[in-house]
Amino acid sequence: SAAEKGGHDYFMLKEIEEQPEALANTLRGHFVDGRIVLDEQRLADQDLRDVDKVFVVACGTAFHSGLVAKYAIEHWTRLPVECELASEFRYRDPVLDRDTLVVAISQSGETADTLEAVRHAREQKARVLAICNTNGAQIPRESDAVLYTHAGPEIGVAATKTFLAQIAANYLVGLALAQARGTKYPDEVAREFHELEAMPDAVRHTLGVVPQVRELARELADSKAILFLGRHVGFPVALEGALKLKELAYMHAEGFAAGELKHGPIALIEQGLPVVIAMPSPKGRAVLHAKLLSNINEIQARGARTIVIAEEGDDTVKPFADHLIEVPAVPTLLQPLVSSVPLQVLAAEIARSRGYDVDKPRNLAKSVTVE
Ligand code: AGP
């Protein structure tokens, strides 16, 4: 009913709007007396100190949350992090031993590929930490430890609030590793939890773009394809934006690392092709920002219709943006938590304009329990 959907036409929009709460609930209780605690974890600090390599295994959107985490965890801990699709991991003889930490991310906790990856990792004696949104599901039951995301039940087949909650949980794991093992960036690590705590408000503020994005979506509904570009943590954001559009709007979509453009994908650019670009903050790494500006310039010059997601007040992008979506300023590693929001709305609303069932896209199930 409309009441269950919080007055929205579909659950996904309600769930998009629940993201501030999903983040706050996931972070709650994990910072006690100045320390990160992974209270549900059952991994001792000594276990975290023994780790010499991290594997993140997951599928779909959960995999994209892992790609985001790789940037943060490697930076804070200097541990090598490999992020791999669960369906590929197990069949290629990955190098694992008792000092490997495998982080298995799954909203449902029932995804067959991820479960098999967990089993394989445990057979190799690796320690497995599950990040899961469903209490008592199979993946946490078979893991050594679990950190729950508290996003609440997600009805829409397309993951939204659980994606943001996964990113937050992954960051808690990274911070806990940094705390247990020491870090080259103690000030940044000490600050980061507080920056995470400010994210529910930043996401709430970001929801202000919803009406603008819905209108844009209606204009783009007849497009044949849409491309998504990003760099650094904006790259997984681009992959996730494209996945959302494929699964909901049945539209061809691809996410690219912006630096790869000239190695092939730029050949796809033609007059009027919508290209969505997730810009990094101009206050972050200047080189990243400058490189993306030049990428947008290149594609705009070739006739693409540029849709730019940029930090509020970033005037440098304006000449290159046919359509500008402004999101609040947040630290670089946290940007996916705000820049993903307009992409979720875009996919949902394009799907709706095309007459599709946003909550139950064709051919898809909420949890995939076959390999
Ligand atoms: C996301 O929108 C998808 N429905 C899908 O990619 C999903 O994230 C994937 O199947 C993994 O599911 P899980 O998190 O329950 O393991």
Quick rundown:
This protein is an alpha/beta fold. 44% of the residues lie in helices and 16% in strands.
**Helical percentage:** 40-55%
Q: What is the overall silhouette?
A: globular
N-to-C CA distance:
34 Å
Task: Spell the H/E element sequence.
Answer: HHEEHEHEHEHEHEHHHHEHEEHEEH
Alpha carbon gyration radius: 20 Å
User: Pairing-aware structural class of the strands and helices?
Assistant: alpha/beta
Number of strands: 12
Verbal overview:
The chain is 44% helix and 16% strand. It has 371 residues and is α/β, with parallel strands linked by helices. The strands form three sheets. Strands 4-3-5-6-7 form a five-stranded parallel sheet, with helices on both faces. A five-stranded parallel sheet has the order 9-8-10-11-12, sandwiched between helices. Helix 4 (60-77) links the parallel strand 3 and strand 4. The radius of gyration is 20 Å and the shape is globular. 53% of the residues are buried. The model has no long low-confidence stretch (mean pLDDT 94). Residues 59-62, 106-108, 111, 114, 157-159, 247, 367-368 line the site of 2-deoxy-2-amino glucitol-6-phosphate. 2-deoxy-2-amino glucitol-6-phosphate (AGP) is lined by residues 59-62, 106-108, 111, 114, 157-159, 247, 367-368. The active site is at residue 366. One of its GO terms (molecular function) is glutamine-fructose-6-phosphate transaminase (isomerizing) activity. It comes from Kutzneria viridogrisea. Keywords: Aminotransferase, Cytoplasm, Glutamine amidotransferase, Repeat, Transferase.
